[in-house]
Specification:
Two copies of one chain form a homodimer.
Chain A: E1 2-3, E2 6-7, E3 10-12, H1 16-20, E4 23-31, E5 34-35, H2 38-52, H3 59-70, E6 75-82, E7 99-105, H4 113-116, E8 122-128, H5 143-155, E9 160-164, E10 168-172, E11 176-181, E12 184-188, H6 198-209, E13 214-217, E14 219-220, H7 221-226, E15 229-234, E16 238-241, E17 244-245, E18 248-249, H8 254-265
Parallel strand pairs in A: 8-9, 12-13
Antiparallel strand pairs in A: 1-2, 1-7, 4-5, 4-6, 6-7, 9-10, 10-14, 11-12, 11-15, 15-16, 17-18
Chain lengths: 268, 268
């Protein structure tokens, strides 16, 4: 792994990424040395940095570092950008010197049935908080996801579904959610909770290319349980259909599987 | 500074404290080599670790490390405990190997008038989110405080006041809040937002010892603006009276100053 471009596996204890979770990150697939959907990943990194007013590392520099680390191999890359070493106290430096960490990891292996038959997510007890100033971005304050993932682990589930305090469905613990209802797509509004991932944007592109209506909305649990199909997307596993949620069995998955192929095969 | 007992100023990039803010911390005063209110500080650290199910480092070990670092000097100590190095992914390890970081810093110097005349806090635009599962504990997910402190910095204020989404007053950006109303104390309910600090507990002890009624309640902005006195407490500055909030001038500070002396002089 590289820390600010140099081989290293540590960061300063004074880094605000550790002190306050004051930073953002990206997790992306590398296919034979090429970062998958790189421009979208970089745009999202830059967007998230902008929200926190952290200067975003240069695109060409990051791409060079990724290529230096992965050669022609495949795997999962993680990019962390923090506000860097700061003085003590919450107030952000007006001239931050960001820390960037680039690392490569083996791709996790999931059961093939997750992709074909689908999964049964755990419905998490933890309810996501609402914070419009931070919603959508993939910042380093992820304790809610940690608690939710702990619930899934205890329940023996490969993924979990998260609702907000008011009972609206937001996302998986590490994925975005879509429902197919009468040939149209619906996906939760993430303006107050959740992370708006790159694969979610790619599904929007699929709907545009295929003239399918897609609505971003405050999605109720009842709508999810009435849907024809539901599926989850992220940049590591791609797309998993949901085969069951609580007592509801979803027998259809044709839309999910069409989008799954598209997400895997297309590069944009 | 010491990382797991050894002189070091870095931690692993794979530490969950960096990846997810998966840990807790304490900031405390050291007076001539002695950590101030140590038992309360340690109890709070242990409590917060328990909430996240992170094994808390041994009390005697931490105390030894603090003494090793500060000798007979005074200053501010920071203790960070994270869930340690983890496998990739949000799910917490079932057998975590926590990381502990102990560091000593010079005490910040504040204008003497903060203690005598009081301060004018900035009323922050950022509204704290509600998360009962994490409220009260001093975890490493502090982006809300970072954003709020940035607002204060821009406003030229030494501290800020935070409300929740519903407009209830919660705390300062790095301090707990009390109002004195008709000889009684009131302080915000922190069951959904905010950090319940050690000095807040000590004010509770003062009220018990002095037969003063203290109510923990959902405190409205209007009640704060109608109060006779308001003041802020934390473990670094102790107690600051508030002299002004928005258009309201607080002319009284006798209760605040009595508690200020007590917080400085008593050891429990």
């Amino acid at each position: 792994m590289l820390v600010n471009g140099k081989p290293a596996d540590t960061i300063s204890v004074a880094d605000r990424g550790l002190s306050y979770g004051d930073g953002v990150f990206r997790t992306l697939r590398i296919q034979q040395g090429s970062p998958f959907c790189w421009h979208r990943q970089y745009d999202k990194l830059r967007h998230d940095c902008n929200v926190l007013q952290i200067p975003c590392p240069d695109e060409v520099l990051l791409l060079k570092e990724l290529r230096r680390l992965c050669g022609t191999e495949s795997g999962i890359a993680k990019i962390i950008v923090t506000r860097g070493i700061g003085e003590r106290g919450y107030a952000p430096s007006l001239q931050p010197n960001p820390t960037r960490v680039v690392s490569i990891h083996p791709a996790p292996e999931y059961d093939a049935t997750c992709y074909t038959d689908g999964i049964t997510p755990h419905l998490c007890n933890l309810k996501l908080s609402r914070q419009p100033r931070l919603a959508g971005i993939k910042h380093l304050n992820r304790l809610e996801n940690v608690l939710a993932a702990g619930e899934c682990q205890a329940a023996g589930a490969v993924e979990g579904l998260l609702q907000d305090e008011e009972g609206f469905v937001i996302s998986g613990t590490r994925s975005n959610l879509f429902a197919v209802i009468g040939g149209k797509l619906m996906t939760p509004d993430l303006s107050a909770s959740g992370v708006a991932g790159v694969q979610r944007d790619r599904v929007f592109t699929w709907t545009e290319q295929n003239d399918v209506q897609c609505t971003v909305t405050r999605l109720k649990m009842s709508e999810l349980l009435d849907a024809d199909e539901i599926f989850l997307v992220n940049s590591v596993f791609g797309l998993w259909p949901v085969s069951r949620l609580l007592d509801k069995e979803y027998s259809q998955r044709q839309t999910a599987l069409a989008i799954q192929s598209w997400l895997n095969d297309e590069k944009y």
